[in-house]
Automatic annotation (TrEMBL):
Keywords: Membrane, Transmembrane, Transmembrane helix. The chain crosses the membrane at residues 30-52, 72-93. The keyword Membrane applies. This is Uncharacterized protein.
Length: 233
């Protein structure tokens, strides 16, 4: 019983495996086969019904020499030609749609790669004089740069004041010295890339964080509106 069952199912299983492996090839072939069948099959009953009867013995079929007969055949056959064209049109429309979809995905992926390469990253560093400096360590220019500082006031009241610098733009690897920042407890920056995407940099306790505002706004009061007084750098 096991041998009989194995022999019965094996050809069907092999056929399914071949069909799944070559499903795209089968689809391509069957579309054109279907179109050809739609064109050829109507010819057989039409010829059997309307062919000319002749007593002459010949291996060649007998065709009408009347123009009206050929006009009627063309009218009859045109509907099946249109149907075959419809199958081929649907097939190529699907191919074009898939091609355009794939092309759009590649273009979108390429744009993301370009954006990643052109992304600016502003980092902060403290010099030997305890003054902070900002450097563009990314691979793209930083535009509309605003640096914000939360600084301790030099008195015994433990007061702090927020202010900042407007740097406008920073090219790759450019470093700017931020004067009068020796007593700051936190420092941050707002800036955009050449595509207008907004980014934030924030450092506190020597820990630097980079925020892409397309992923959400950071909950940091120093970078929140309203902005403090900004001075040109």
């Amino acid at each position: 019983m096991f041998d009989k069952y194995e022999i019965t199912i094996k050809p069907y299983t092999v056929f399914l495996l071949i069909l799944m492996k070559n499903r795209h090839t089968f689809t391509n072939k069957w579309v054109f086969i279907l179109a050809i069948v739609v064109i050829i099959i109507p010819i057989i009953p039409y010829y059997c019904t309307f062919s000319i009867k002749s007593n002459q013995t010949s291996n060649w079929p007998n065709f009408s020499n009347q123009t009206s007969d050929w006009s009627n055949f063309a009218t009859f056959f045109a509907a099946f030609i249109s149907l075959a064209n419809l199958f081929v049109f649907i097939y190529f429309s699907e191919l074009i749609y898939k091609y355009n979809l794939k092309r759009d995905e590649l273009i979108e992926e390429k744009e993301k790669q370009i954006e990643a390469l052109e992304k600016p990253i502003l980092a902060f560093n403290q010099t030997q004089e305890s003054i902070y400096e900002v450097t563009n360590i990314g691979r793209g220019a930083a535009l509309n740069v605003k640096v914000f500082v939360n600084q301790k006031v030099e008195n015994d009241n433990g007061e702090y004041q927020c202010w900042g610098y407007r740097c406008y733009s920073m090219y790759v690897h450019q470093t700017l010295l931020l004067k009068n920042t020796s007593n700051c407890i936190e420092i941050g920056a707002k800036y955009t890339d050449i595509f207008g995407n907004e980014f934030n940099s924030y450092m506190k306790d020597y820990s630097l964080k980079i925020f892409d505002l397309r992923l959400g706004l950071p909950s940091i009061s120093l970078l929140a509106d309203p902005e403090p007084t900004l001075h040109p750098l």
